[in-house]
Write a structure and sequence with these properties.
57% of the residues lie in helices and 8% in strands. The protein is α+β, with helices and mostly antiparallel strands. It has 2 domains: 4-171, C8orf32 fold; 176-264, Tetratricopeptide repeat domain (Serine Threonine Protein Phosphatase 5, Tetratricopeptide repeat, Alpha Horseshoe). The longest helix has 19 residues, at 31-49.
């Protein structure tokens, strides 16, 4: 398995880092084709934007190209499908979720010399624009539309509750490893929802390569092993979580689960 911590994610573009992540989880990821497709789109964008004067005009032309001419869009019908988090599939289907679409848009924008960066807003991934001498602007990569502070406040309240306040930290540009970490968690949840447990297990193993003793990842790994009928390993992981997080509400539920599983264990000689 590829060790993600061997990669210097800040030295490459987010979309390239995501392809490394995708390949580590699913070896069938068509990363070579995806890299070539990114290059092809970049060349087309350079040609299309060559007559545009000014950075803001160039960026707005890129948005029109990306969302209208090329037809990239958020997947409204199957938002939680794992294919929307694999960059090669997003490039192929022209559908995705904010972080996958945003990574491709960031790749193009940065290669074109535009002042764009990524923001892991609590509710979703955003693209941040910082024109010289102006307040930052934000793009929703799901549809390519500009998002006002009022809308961001509404999103935050919907995500975190009525007392949530919009803070500068919510709109801070983040490094690639931070995004990759959240992307990994998102992939795991989508694969679990689809009952693709072998691939989900790879997500957990990758996460544990960063933080080997994370009790919550070990708890999730236990659940995956249980689904794969590896009950003894699942019991061990559940017990580790119970021991490390005895006050967590999930610990009491897992105690019952461990007791039930222990009673039904069959020893094969």
């Amino acid at each position: 398995m590829v060790e993600l911590f061997d990669e210097d994610f800040d030295s490459i573009e987010l979309a390239e880092g995501a392809l490394i992540l995708n390949k580590a989880i699913n070896p069938k990821t068509n990363d070579i084709w995806a890299r070539n497709e990114l290059q092809r789109l970049l060349k087309e964008a350079e040609l299309t934007l060559s007559h545009e004067i000014g950075e803001q005009q160039r960026f707005d032309a890129l948005l029109r190209l990306f969302y209208h001419q090329w037809g990239f869009s958020g997947d409204q019908d199957a938002y939680y499908e794992s294919s929307n988090a694999f960059v090669d599939k997003v490039l192929e289907n022209r559908k995705g979720i904010p972080v996958s679409l945003g990574s491709i848009l960031l790749y193009l924008g940065r290669k074109l010399g535009l002042p764009v960066s990524g923001v892991t807003f609590p509710s979703q991934f955003l693209i941040k624009l910082e024109w010289f001498g102006e307040a930052p602007k934000f793009i929703n990569p799901f549809n390519g539309e500009y998002v006002s502070k009022q809308v961001l406040r509404a999103w935050l309240i919907g995500h975190s509750g009525p007392l949530a306040k919009l803070k500068p930290s919510h709109l801070k540009s983040v490094d690639n490893p931070t995004v990759i970490g959240r992307w990994l968690a998102l992939l795991k949840s989508t694969l679990l929802r689809e009952e693709k447990y072998t691939l989900a297990l790879k997500c957990t193993d990758l996460a544990l390569s960063f933080v080997p003793d994370d009790p919550y990842e070990i708890r999730d790994r236990g659940f995956i092993y249980q689904q794969l009928d590896c009950h003894q390993v699942a019991l061990s992981d559940y017990q580790y979580f119970i021991d490390q997080c005895p006050d967590d509400p999930a610990a009491e539920l897992l105690k019952n689960q461990v007791n039930a599983m222990s009673l039904t264990q069959v020893t094969v000689h």
